[in-house]
């Protein structure tokens, strides 16, 4: 219960959220006497409830509560055991009057002890449900994604609307001036450090999209990695981006030191104590000695890395593991209904052509190429798994349907970011030419009838001991 105190204090009248509170007696009364004699008990679910409860009532001797305004102080909550005390100061003014009333509210809440569930390092998407149905959905989703046997939902083959267009924002972080400098092209922000090594934006919109990609992969795979590691000690995350994978990995392995490397300084400041970030180019000479890292992770870097064999030969401890998780960004139709001149097919063909002129092999992950490069670099126990990432909501399985919604949103949100660099830098297009192309591609992505997906390659191998 809440006790209203103050010199003077204000009577609080019942509102729709506080039924059962006694109203003041009818008839005129002196407002100051009413205020000084009032001691009202009420239950609040939040500070704003106090104002909500007074709307439409009259303040005796003064004005309608509809003209009441107030300044809320900062609420405070102190806890000792299962006893919590909530306090709030508030100043009231009526209309344009210069008079005001100061009140203070406190609540002594005794709550039952809270039983917390055991901590799980990597909860699945259905962590709040223990039903057999959810478990079956996970199992079926993983099986269909890997075997290429995704069942089609015949009720979801139409066109989806309601997708917004790209928006642009900016951000910066406190590092050396030479590192945090950016360049701007066609309304998007790019890294200045080692300019041109990465041909995609690094602005806030793109960072949010990268985090969404991480959540999509977790939903599809159910874990952060596939390599058979038990207790890694030195972990490297190549192309760490916002650092979300590195942070979650550090939380899972508190005894490991996790280093995230990226060309852009947009990682958070508040991170676990066993996480560090470095702004550097992983294709340049490394500062760390050879045989330093026992687990190296790389994800979504296939359209950035130019020399995979050299990267694979870098500082890997004997017995350590190297894992790559890469999407082959060329859509495949389950029912072979996408013609070569389809807007999406043409879009990705142009991206491929532009990246080739910029020195990037768009098809590096396809056809087991990365796995073979890993074997050529001397790795053993090389394993490759390929999952299907649906584009859109056409799968029957609930988990894969959600994954498809995630992925299509990611592709639509990044449709401009992906195209601008390869097409303007690589092919010499103007921004207006790019935007004309994107109009028809956006429409095509919303059509589920082609049953599109992209292969997701998970490749890992071990350096011989």
TrEMBL record:
Disordered: region residues: 1-80, 114-171
Gene3D superfamilies: Vaccinia Virus protein VP39
Polar residues bias spans: 41-54, 66-80
GO molecular-function term, one example from the UniProt record: methyltransferase activity
Low complexity: bias regions: 31-40
Signal sequence interval, chain numbering: none
Family affiliation: Belongs to the methyltransferase superfamily. LaeA methyltransferase family.
The protein, known as: Phosphoethanolamine N-methyltransferase
Lineage of producing organism: Eukaryota, Fungi, Dikarya, Ascomycota, Pezizomycotina
């Amino acid at each position: 219960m809440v006790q209203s105190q103050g010199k003077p204090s204000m009577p609080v009248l019942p509102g729709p959220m506080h039924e059962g509170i006694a109203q003041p007696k009818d008839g005129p009364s002196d407002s100051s006497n009413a205020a000084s004699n009032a001691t009202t008990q009420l239950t609040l679910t939040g500070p704003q409830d106090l104002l909500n409860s007074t709307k439409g009532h009259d303040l005796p001797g003064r004005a309608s509560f509809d003209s009441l305004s107030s300044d809320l102080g900062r609420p405070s909550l102190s806890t000792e055991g299962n006893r919590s005390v909530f306090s709030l100061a508030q100043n009231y003014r009526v209309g344009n009057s210069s008079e005001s009333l100061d009140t203070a509210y406190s609540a002594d809440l005794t709550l039952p002890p809270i039983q917390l569930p055991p901590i799980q390092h990597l909860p699945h998407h259905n962590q709040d449900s223990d039903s057999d149905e959810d478990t079956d959905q996970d199992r079926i989703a993983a099986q269909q994604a890997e075997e290429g046997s995704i069942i089609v939902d015949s009720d979801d083959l139409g066109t989806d609307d309601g997708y917004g267009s790209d928006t642009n924002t900016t951000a910066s972080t406190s590092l050396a001036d030479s590192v945090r400098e950016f360049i701007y092209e066609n309304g998007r922000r790019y890294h200045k450090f080692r300019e041109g090594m990465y041909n995609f934006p690094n602005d806030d919109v793109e960072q949010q999209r990268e985090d969404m990609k991480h959540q999509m992969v977790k939903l599809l795979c159910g874990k952060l990695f596939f390599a058979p590691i038990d207790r890694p000690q030195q972990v490297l995350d190549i192309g760490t981006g916002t650092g979300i994978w590195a942070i979650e990995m550090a939380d899972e392995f508190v005894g490991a030191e996790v280093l995230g490397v990226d060309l852009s300084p947009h990682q958070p400041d508040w991170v676990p104590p066993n996480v560090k970030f470095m702004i550097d180019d992983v294709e340049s000479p490394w500062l760390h000695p050879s045989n330093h890292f026992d687990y190296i992770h790389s994800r979504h870097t296939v359209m950035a890395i130019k020399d995979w064999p050299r990267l694979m030969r870098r500082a890997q401890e004997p017995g350590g593991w190297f894992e790559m998780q890469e999407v082959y960004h060329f859509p495949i139709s389950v029912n072979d209904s996408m013609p070569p001149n389809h807007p999406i097919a043409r879009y990705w063909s142009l991206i491929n052509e532009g990246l080739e002129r910029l020195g990037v092999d768009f098809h590096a992950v396809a056809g087991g190429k990365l796995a073979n490069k890993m074997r050529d670099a001397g790795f053993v126990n090389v394993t490759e798994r390929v999952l299907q990432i649906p584009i859109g909501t056409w799968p029957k399985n609930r988990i894969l349907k959600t994954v498809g919604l995630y992925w299509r949103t990611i592709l639509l949100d990044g449709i401009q970011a992906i195209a601008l660099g390869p097409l303007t830098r690589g092919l010499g297009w103007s921004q207006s030419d790019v935007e004309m192309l994107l109009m028809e591609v956006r429409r095509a992505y919303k059509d589920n009838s082609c049953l599109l997906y992209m292969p997701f390659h998970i490749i890992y191998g071990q350096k011989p001991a």
